[in-house]
Amino acid sequence: MLKKLRQIGLTEYEAKAYLALLKFGVQQCRKVAKHSGVPPTRVFDTLHSLVAKGFASRVQDKPLLFKAIKPEIAITNTIKQRQEDLRILKEDLLSQLKNITPKFPQPKVVEKISVLPGYEPLWSFVENALKEAKREVKLMFTYEQRPYRILPLYKKAVDRGVKVKIIATKITEAGMQLIKEHIKLGIDVKFYPVQEIRIAIKDGKETLITMLNPRDRHDRVNIIIQSKELSKALDYYFKSIWKKARIIS
């Protein structure tokens, strides 16, 4: 428990004090020190640090009393804040790093293949494809995940004339709601049950393939292909599936 609390940003003393407040309720500093094992000389600063981080509140001054904020509130708010901090950091880093160019002449790369693990490479590729595509974006995936940053990009892509086609390989009740949102935006959506593979194609020139481990759906490998010839072959595969797929209305 202490280790997990430290993983979300609490120090060891803060984690111990927070657990003591949860177990024993409203307490004075000396009681928190007794129940948590935090040194009496450190407990005052530790509790005020918990207040600053949103894990405790100061409920009375004389005598000085503290109480724990409910875990569902404290942890949710902490994670949201961390996500926002990471988003701002990402934008700041990208704005600075994108202007860095090699000082020396670089060899021309004819084809490029990158292999990346996890969920995020897929959605990063889709995000960039929707922002940069000039003609079309073709996608094939389940409707089990939906990063909220992606939805506005669909609309912007469609508004500037990009044709977006999606093959849904699995449909859930929640997924059907998202499919209806996409159809309203002018996106063509069809259904066809394809197992263990996901595809994203931008303008027929750049492709991402995601391969899933059938025994562990969270274990996945993304292959990003910047090759016209390979992308053309995968585009042909997408078209063959599209012809067999069922229209969703």
Commentary on this structure:
The chain is α+β, with helices and mostly antiparallel strands and 249 residues long. It folds into two domains: 2-72, Arc Repressor Mutant, subunit A; 112-247, 2-Layer Sandwich (Endonuclease, Chain A), CATH 3.30.870.10. Helix content is 47%, strand content 23%. The chain has nine helices and ten strands. The chain has helices spanning 2-7, 12-24, 29-36, 40-52, 71-97, 120-132, 151-159, 173-184, 228-244; strands spanning 56-60, 65-68, 112-117, 136-141, 163-168, 188-191, 197-202, 206-213, 216-226, 246-247. The strands form two sheets. It has an eight-stranded mixed β-sheet, sandwiched between helices. Helix 7 (151-159) links the parallel strand 4 and strand 5. It starts with a helix and ends with a strand.
CATH topology of the largest domain: Endonuclease, Chain A
- Span from first to last CA? 48 Å
Give the full name of the CATH homologous superfamily of the largest domain: Endonuclease Chain A
Question: β content, as a range?
Answer: 15-25%
Compute the average pLDDT. 88
Write the layout of secondary structure elements.
Layout: H1 2-7, H2 12-24, H3 29-36, H4 40-52, E1 56-60, E2 65-68, H5 71-97, E3 112-117, H6 120-132, E4 136-141, H7 151-159, E5 163-168, H8 173-184, E6 188-191, E7 197-202, E8 206-213, E9 216-226, H9 228-244, E10 246-247
Helix pairs in contact: 2-3, 2-4, 3-4
